[in-house]
Design a protein that fits this description.
Layout (H helix, E strand, L loop, with lengths): L1 H7 L2 H30 L2 H8 L11 H15 L5 E5 L9 E5 L5 E5 L7 E2 L5 H11 L9 H23 L16 H14 L2 H13 L2 H4 L1 H8 L3 H9 L19 H12 L4 E7 L7 E6 L11 E5 L5 E4 L5 H14 L4 H33 L4 H30 L10 H19 L2 H17 L4 H4 L4 H7 L2 H25 L8
Helix pairs in contact: 2-5, 2-6, 2-14, 2-15, 3-5, 3-20, 4-12, 6-8, 7-14, 8-13, 11-13, 14-15, 15-16, 15-17, 16-17, 17-20, 19-20
């Protein structure tokens, strides 16, 4: 019947071949991008999980938070060119005050977690997964290869979604079937279909928005023809990007206008609790500028609504940055991708859909090697693909878990601690690659699968080392810590079920 359909519709063979080869060569990169993107959805919660030395956040009113932040920044950074105050909200209960150093970096302190300010470490857990998801940990200041590889993976995701639906005639009919006992290849195909079709609208949306956010990088000729070398104008008109430009000279000294008074003025227009951040440029100088940024939890757009004041006189300079229609569309598309809106329920939907996408990629890669093993001899390509499946799927997952362990176990006082997380990640991943190529494929799946389950199941034990066990987190109300630990236990249990189904006594599936 399948051959008859292929003869009747000759394009199906080419479309299936296109689906297989595009998914094969970019699937290994796409799996990592989807997995880290699913984790990065909870980047704020992961940061809090790693900062176990923080005590419980004390509730603080906005007026008290602003006064406390100004007092701290005035004492520690009166000559800084830029201050940033981040007010507590439902997602992040900590009051954060940061200032820009002479070298250009930001030093951030949490002010409501104890009797003394807590200086936040620069490299945090959630930020690590964000960096991998966006440009594969390759620094954008040195190379843009990571951005282009992620872009290629996004294009591949669009292509395989469309070609997969187009080439699979009964895709929606077979979506409701899962036949683990009929045929091992059919079981993997059914699982691949379910994981790919159920969140298909999400897959199309997330890949398209990820590409459209950086269209000016992938196709720079259009912007250069219209704007030439004036990229700042292009960013403001087409992207809605606005940056606080610091003048070369600070100007004459002048007292800073009361930020509490400006806070009340902003709240009278936006409402209580609507302010997310406050930026102050050149405090204690005549040219000081104060910006109040509106929160984004109740809007899809990525751009903040702003009110800009003269920091010396308190006069309102600008209300809301003017955005072109193109910039507004770009803001909404970026907001759909970065999901800073909608609350915890939307973030869980994004994370689960992303994990299903990663599972669809993983089952597709396994399907390719299964099919080739049945139809042709174990050529070098098939052998290498089977080895890469082990290290790119399970090995990469173990490397991600190693970052969780390193964040908890590495001493906070170690020099260059920020650079150790990528080293641990790449070291574990490299070890998994060596192991995969030196052992038979079946043993590679079993060994690295057991390692993955162990790392997940034992992850909550790291809390005892940092005096923040799962029980203590629940009693103290550190729900971000508790949810991560419980999720790790649930994933470990699911991993045991999958490993048993694939390599257990009955072997319902076969990798």
């Amino acid at each position: 019947m399948r051959a008859h359909n292929t003869m009747k519709r000759p394009y199906l063979r080419e479309m299936r071949a296109f689906h297989s080869w595009v998914g094969l060569f970019l699937g290994w990169i796409l799996f990592g991008v989807l997995l880290t993107g699913s984790l990065a959805v909870f980047h704020t919660e992961l940061d809090q999980w790693g900062l176990t030395e923080l005590s419980f956040a004390k509730p603080v009113a906005p007026e008290q938070a602003v006064a406390q932040s100004v007092e701290y920044l005035s004492a520690h950074a009166p000559d800084a060119r830029l201050w940033r105050i981040t007010l507590p909200d439902e997602r992040d209960p900590y009051l954060r005050a940061a200032y820009k150093t002479a070298s250009g970096g930001m030093v951030e302190a949490i002010l409501n977690s104890g009797p003394h300010p807590f200086i936040v470490r620069n490299e945090q857990l959630g930020s690590f997964f964000l960096l991998y998801h966006s440009h594969l940990l390759l620094k954008r200041t040195l190379t843009q290869i990571g951005l282009f590889l992620v872009g290629a993976a996004g294009i591949a995701m669009l292509c395989v979604c469309i070609s997969g639906v187009w080439s699979h005639i009964k895709v929606f009919a077979e979506f409701f079937t899962f036949r683990p006992g009929k045929n091992k290849h059919r079981a993997w195909l059914d699982l691949h279909t379910v994981l790919g079709i159920l969140p298909l609208p999400f897959h199309l949306m997330i890949s398209y928005t990820g590409l459209i956010m950086l269209y000016w990088l992938y196709v720079p000729s259009a912007a250069s023809v219209i704007y030439g070398n004036n990229l700042s104008t292009f960013r403001q008109e087409a992207l809605g990007t606005y940056s606080m430009v610091l003048p070369a000279q600070k100007g004459p000294a002048a007292p800073l206008f009361s930020l509490t008074t400006l806070l009340h003025d902003a709240q009278s227009h936006w409402g209580q609790g609507a302010i997310a951040k406050i930026y102050v440029r050149d405090p204690f100088y005549k040219g000081a500028i104060v910006e109040f940024w509106h929160e984004r939890a109740h809007q899809v757009g990525q751009q903040y609504a702003r009110r800009v004041y003269n920091g010396a006189t308190g006069q309102l300079i600008l209300q809301n940055m003017p955005l072109t229609f193109v910039a507004r569309v770009q803001s909404v598309l970026a907001g759909l991708h970065w999901v800073e809106w909608g609350g915890a329920s939307i973030r869980w939907c994004y994370a689960l859909a992303g994990l299903m996408g990663a599972g669809s990629v993983a089952t597709g890669l396994i399907l390719y090697t299964q099919k080739q093993s049945r139809t042709v001899q174990n050529t070098i390509l098939v052998t290498v693909a089977r080895k890469l499946n082990v290290c790119a799927l399970l090995g990469f997952s173990c490397a991600c878990l190693s970052v969780f362990w390193a964040e908890r176990l590495l001493s906070y006082t170690w020099p260059q601690r920020n650079a150790l997380l990528p080293v641990v990640f790449l070291g574990v991943w490299f070890a998994s690659i060596v192991h995969a190529f030196l052992t038979p494929t079946r043993f590679g799946w079993v060994h690295q699968g057991c390692l993955f389950i162990t790392l997940c199941g034992a992850l909550p034990l790291t809390g005892w080392y940092r005096h923040m066990s799962l029980l203590s987190a629940c009693m103290l109300g550190h729900w971000s810590v508790a949810v991560v630990d419980v999720s790790a236990l649930a994933i470990a249990l699911l991993g045991c079920v999958v490993l048993y189904c694939v390599f257990g006594h009955k072997r319902v599936l076969k990798a």
